[in-house]
Amino acid sequence: MPVGALWQALADLVLPASCAGCGGSGQTLRHEVCADCARAVESLRAAPTRPDPAPAGLPACVALGAYDGRLRELILAFKERGRHRLARPLGALLAEAVAASAAPDRPLLLLYVPDTAEAARARHGDHMRALARCAAERLREAGRRAGLAAPLRALPKADSAHLSSAERAAGASGAFVLRRGALERARQAAPGSVTVLLDDIVTTGATLAAASSLLADAGVRVDGCVTLAATRRYLPHRAIWP
Ligand SMILES: [Zn+2]
């Protein structure tokens, strides 16, 4: 090994040299992202999205962008590739989407879809909890009143790869249980606040609907869901032959 190569390899372990969005190297990275990728995701504007068909009990949903391109790469890098420093910028993007969706004078109560214990172990922490914390912080820095509560606990997941969407929806309804202490705090905070359920991606909406229904039954009404991304086929319909 040439002199210097070992150091380079070691340094790479500490500070990834490639952008988490485009994989490009040799650029100045801020929070693991190059200037081009940062510009691209910062230019996204939150918009309403709705799975079609939408499952019963799904609140209004807002997503920052389609689940593709740089946004998809950043979510995957954060969630599956250990790029933990993305929590702050991705949390800030979630905060932007929340701020754009709720009346500016109302206090906010942020809830999130938690990881299963197994997923949280593999990711060295619950990735949505990290994002929700950063989002709440960002909102408070911007002068909003924003609380965070964690009334949901995810149960171990059955292997759902081979299930139909109806079976998946049935599975999603049994995916969570309530954490009593946190539920009580959410119940007290919710009435005067806009209650927002956060997740990284909305696909069929089954998970968000199941979590929202469980919370509603326990006295915490979710006013809306905010995600970073929506899978493209569920974005508002566009002409097939423009
Ligand atoms: Zn990049």
TrEMBL record:
Matching Gene3D superfamilies: 3.40.50.2020
Classification via InterPro entries: ComF/GntX_DNA_util-trans, PRTase-like
Highest taxon of source: Bacteria
Protein name: Amidophosphoribosyltransferase
Naturally occurring in which organism (per UniProt): Catellatospora coxensis
